[in-house]
Fold:
Amino acid sequence: MGSSPDNKQVTFQQLPDESLKVLQLTDSHLYADPSRCLLGINTLETFDQVLAQALMETGTPDLLLATGDLVHDASDSGYKRLLGRLRLTEIPSYCLPGNHDLPGKMRQLLNQDNVHCIPSVQAKGWSLIFLDSTIPNNDGGRIDKGQLALLKVLLEAHPDKHTLICMHHHPLPVGSRWMDTMVLQNPDSFFDLVVDHPQVKAVLCGHIHQVFETVYKGVKLMGTPSTCVQFTAGEDDFAIDATPPGYRWLSLQPDGEILSGLSSLPNIPSGLDLASMGY
Ligand SMILES: [Fe+2]
Structure:
């Protein structure tokens, strides 16, 4: 499996026990109809394959994060199918919405047993905050006044805990013109709050269907490949990348350091429509 971004050759199993071990699955784009494909790929099949590989490679992580665009058609049956998969893992799982999701429906259908749609959780000296960056009927992202107020409350409630903020949309441009039309619309209000709270170590997102890692104002920013189709980095226009579905693991250390790496399926799923101009 992948190494950490700073090239330390660390595997998940070698990580110290005291770290908070997290698995991120993102942009699963499931459908009501389990046979439906997105850009030629059966998204349920690739989700199941990525989840199985992730559990095999990481054993039992402490937490599983599903960072939006979980169900492409926001269908009840899509969410129930996802719930079934997450329940079977028995791992505490935290879901947040993407532009393809319906946040209210997610909260209604996914908040059961080990699966949660809640604003935050605290564990092993860390606070994880889950924001809703969606705008109704719009693919772009925004941390609205309510979410900013919630973020402030949660940051002030746990000043002594290292903090990871999770949201669907990428908070800053990733250098891809078409994708960056959907970037967070109000990064300044978000980062003004973040830099006022030095316990924030990183922001983790989905949405971009590609790897992205940088540091901004001292905060690590991480984006992650999808469990289905990937988009080519740095392209002005929509372009499908011939990279297999994958996931990210994170090890949140007691001293605030974050180790993280990526892993992907061994092959590109058959049927991927590389020539597609959009979806
Ligand atoms: Fe998205």
